[in-house]
Amino acid sequence: MKKTLILSKEIRNYRDGYHLNSKYWQEWKQKILPLTAELREIAIGMVLSDACMYKKSNHALIKFEQGYLQEEFLLHLFSIFKNYSFMIEPGRRITLEGKRKGLTKSLWFKSFSHIFFDEVWNLFYVDSGNKHMKIIHVGLIKNHLTDRGLAYWIMGDGSLQKDGKTLILHTQSYTQTENLILSKELNEKFGFMSEVILHKKIYFVIKFNSKDALKLHNLIKPHIHESMRYKIPLIHKTPFTYGV
């Protein structure tokens, strides 16, 4: 793995002349509106994908990061969550070696910790000694994933195959058992025929075959960001440019 440098290492300790731990900002945080249903759905979809969460000052925060090819998508995420972040703009990781030396490798931002994110945290994380573990609970998809959340999960982890209809959800960070739970509940809730398959002889991922293309297309298309439209399964045979 090539070495990288975080150009914007951390959020500055001051904003608008006040320290972030000051009474001014702490009172401001208490006055902000709760997450809308839409933002909650998006947060769940992104944590199912590649967003991660941490606990700080007894409350949770969420961190988003995308590769440079998905810059527009990351900027979209920042635009809708910026009221819950002290960052003025996303940070950038810069490649130090190779053909892309000096260029952006990925972009990231994180929210501030807040009780509003605790609900999402509790859906995914459990205490394990001095650490927190991300796990998939039975009922997560059935009770909490919406069409919008699924669309954001696919924008983060989905990979449309060469036929333009088969889609792989890259869930290799989860165990085989967790993938089976996810696939089963996706099928039961949305009527898919997804299956868990072995990927690269090591990992387990979820596969939606071409029979799910129409249903996937109709469910996620209204929520897909313009820069990610290439991940929408096709419903007609048209020329297709493969992309991940």
Automatic annotation (TrEMBL):
Pfam families associated with the record: LAGLIDADG_2
Keywords: Endonuclease, Hydrolase, Mitochondrion, Nuclease
Top-level taxonomic group: Eukaryota
Record domain Homing endonuclease LAGLIDADG: where: 40-215
MF terms in GO: endonuclease activity
The protein's role, per its UniProt record: Mitochondrial DNA endonuclease involved in intron homing.
Stated name of the protein: LAGLIDADG endonuclease type 2
Originating species: Amanita thiersii
Upper taxonomic lineage: Eukaryota, Fungi, Dikarya, Basidiomycota, Agaricomycotina
